[in-house]
Write a structure and sequence with these properties.
Helix content is 30%, strand content 20%. The strands form two sheets. Strands 2, 3, 4, 5, 8 and 9 form a six-stranded mixed β-sheet that branches. A hairpin with a 2-residue loop joins strand 3 (113-119) and strand 4 (122-129). It has 312 residues and is of the alpha+beta class.
């Protein structure tokens, strides 16, 4: 609409002109303060952030929404190599699962079994728990004590069907939520299996990303619904990993433990676009496609990568 002064009240017109003037000044100010996003600038800002934290007083750091709370201890943040090869989904229930009141402790809930199901084109999850608390506690104790190469247990743990749950909402990308373990860097003298960690990791906050988030609610019972393979009991044991599973885990773990991972990933992308190089070294120095060595130029590239990313 064209600006017709006599159609407008003068107080509105003066406010509009002032708003336009302010907006023009803001735009000019933003143009003058351009942000340097070059690689050198980013490295400089990262180094400055570490220096600022090291020189700051913990007592001066306050909670963003609860100012009465102040920081008392600082932890360096690391990826958690002990669980990095695992994939984690976060399940939220519309109400507490199981058959016990909210105020009653239930040690079975953190080792429940969720089994994907399908009936008449409808996809949902079957939920299983152990009958007794002692069974769940023993199962968790044995799971923590086991090594990936241990043979299966003599007796399986029985998980009994409780009910079905349907998915209300699924978030395929969860960029801002993580599993976080605060480790004081000290080993437990009395571990579950009588063993100690092969190498004590330093004090720090160890994180692992969450793959998906799901909101579940109880599925309405339909007596006429046809289940293709409903199980009343799941008998669960641990079996050793196959060679393919072990390699898959090693590839996933290389992201945080192998200093040559960025180089290997770049080569994999290049091979996917063009011809595969039989002399490219794989993760942890294993050659792909039966190659027994590598060219001198390739060896020099790896040396350069170690210089850039550092050795573990």
């Amino acid at each position: 609409m064209p600006h017709v002064a006599w159609l407008r009240r003068t107080e509105y017109l003066s406010r509009e002109n002032a708003s336009r003037a302010s907006s023009s000044q803001d735009i000019k100010h933003n143009q003058d303060n351009s942000i340097d996003v070059s690689r050198d600038a980013q490295l400089r800002d990262i180094d400055a952030s570490f220096a600022a934290i090291e020189s700051s007083d913990l007592a001066s750091l306050r909670h963003p929404t609860k100012p009465e709370l102040t920081a008392v201890e600082a932890f360096e943040i690391f990826p958690d190599a002990e669980i990095w090869a695992n994939a984690y989904d976060l399940f939220r229930f519309s109400e507490r699962p199981g058959d016990r009141p909210v105020d009653v402790e239930d040690p079975r809930l953190d080792c429940a079994v969720l089994r994907p199901m399908e009936a008449d084109g409808d996809h949902f999850l079957a939920y299983y728990l152990t009958k007794e608390d002692e069974d769940a506690i023993e199962f968790k104790r044995n799971r923590l004590a086991r090594s990936p190469d241990d043979p299966p247990e003599d007796e399986p743990t029985h998980f009994h069907f409780v009910r079905d749950y349907e998915t209300v909402k699924v978030e395929q990308e969860v960029p801002n939520e993580f599993l976080l373990v605060l480790d004081d860097g000290m080993e437990d003298e009395d571990d579950v299996d009588g063993k100690k960690r092969a190498q004590a990791r330093p004090k720090g906050a160890y994180y692992k990303n969450i793959e998906r988030k799901m909101l579940l609610k109880k599925k309405r019972v339909n007596t006429y619904e046809a289940y293709g393979d409903k199980w009343d009991v799941v008998k669960l044991t641990h079996t050793p990993m196959s060679a393919e599973e072990a390699q898959e885990r090693e590839d996933a773990l290389a992201e945080v433990v192998d200093p040559l991972f960025p180089l290997a990933r770049g080569d994999a992308d290049a091979d996917a676009e063009g011809e595969v190089d039989e002399h490219v070294a794989g993760v942890n120095g294993h050659a792909h496609n039966g190659a027994e060595g590598m060219s001198e130029s390739r060896r020099q590239e790896i040396i350069d990568a170690v210089d850039v990313f550092g050795e573990e």
